Sequence to fold (391 residues):
Amino acid sequence: MNIRQALIMAFKSLVTSKMRSFLTMLGIIIGVAAVIVLVSIVGGFSDEITNMFKDMGSNLLTVSIIDRGSNRTVSNTEMMSFAEEHNDLIRCVSPVANVSLSAKRDTVELDTTSITGVNEYYPDIANLTVTDGRFLSFIEAEERGHVCIIGTHVVNELFPGENPLNQIIKIGGQPFTVVGVLEEKADSAERSSDDIIYIPFSTAVALSGMRVNSYSFSAIDQNTTSEVSLLIETFLTKKLGNADNFFIIDQAFLLSIIDSIMGTLSGVMGGIASISLLVAGIGIMNIMLVSVTERTREIGIRKSLGGKRRDIMSQFIIEAAVTSAIGGILGIGVGYLLCRLASPLLDLNVRPTLFAIALSFGVSVVIGMVFGYSPASKASKLNPIDALRYE
Fold:
């Protein structure tokens, strides 16, 4: 008997017992759908985190200097000169001064808004886009300019329905002119990247009375961040005397670690979901054993007419594989629909990946064949005379 005949017989057997066939497939359907949904959700989280890092700049390095009361320090001028000396690797650098001040306009006050002092290079470093107005100028950054650039959440809170450009807000009790509005990135939500005000770092230092202890570097590209990190480490070790007095965060390195973690998590979640496929395989084996028992006389007739053992085995193995394959196809459809439903509920781009579909479908077919082997072997070993006598 060839494969075509075996497939025809397998489909006839499934059609003859529709309800039993569906219940047999149900475990495969659930298992395949679970694998697809879980792997796709992990993939959605991974994409979300990756996009967040890319928005912040994948070639970004953040340097934080720990103030231990030592006389050995590094000035803003020295950091800028260092960046200029290595302009073949470093695109630009900006001091970053986070200050705890409130922003106010008339009677409306924002206590949660992040106020950060930077220089004119910061938009290139952090991938910021100014949609209205402009960013800081060199003179404003160096000479304590009282200007600011605000996020869309701040616009909505302080200037509802108004054009904020050239209007005045108070930061730490001091008047600041709004010269720019940033592009919306997080639906203008409170405490998000849209809830931000940028001012000149020199002004932030003057208002807070603190010196700058953080710098953001932008490498020429993502491939040079590790080299830039080593250069900064060498420079600061000489200036500060001890590598324990600072630390460097390499965004590209963090991104690679997160990708690795998410890849492992995706495999683990897929493995957990695949356990349901294993349970489904046991169900297929049980049903196939029942099928062998019911078709004992049929097997006896085929063997008495010259049917070989391998023909009987192939018939039942193919039948098990067809059952699991159909279940796998239906499971892919269910998994796709669940992913479409999960996307708006989780606010993620949950899309089935080719890897998840291929993995779940391949495993389902293999499980069907593996668990179908035992019933097929039992059927092929039946004695034709005893099989013909079976009632």
User: Anything to note?
Assistant: The radius of gyration is 33 Å. The mean pLDDT is 83.
